[in-house]
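Data card: per-record layout.
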Amino acid sequence: FTSDWSRFDLDQQIIQNQHVRAAARELTLTARVEAANGNMRLAMENLAAVRRLADHVGQEAMLIPQLVSIAIDSMADRQLEWMLQNHRVTEDDLAPLSGSEGGVSGT
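The structure for this 107-residue chain is written out next.
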């Protein structure tokens, strides 16, 4: 996603950010399903993808994308906290969140 600031359109920016948030919610849900199925590594890869979305959105120099970035990152934080409390997670499972690896899994 790149923005052409010479033709700034607030409505378009809001719509674009809604799509990104929807993608983050879908990835978070997929992570939860993977965790429930015992695929913790895949769950963490999906959470890593959510964090990358947050980082990407946060590169925009406007307030709305910054707030959306914080909201998306919070989704990943809450999901990770839930997984750590309710599932057995190994250090290897957490590797995708360290930034050394990435990926997105589908179910």
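Known properties of this structure: DSSP finds three helices and no strands in the chain. The radius of gyration is 15 Å.

See the next section for split statistics.
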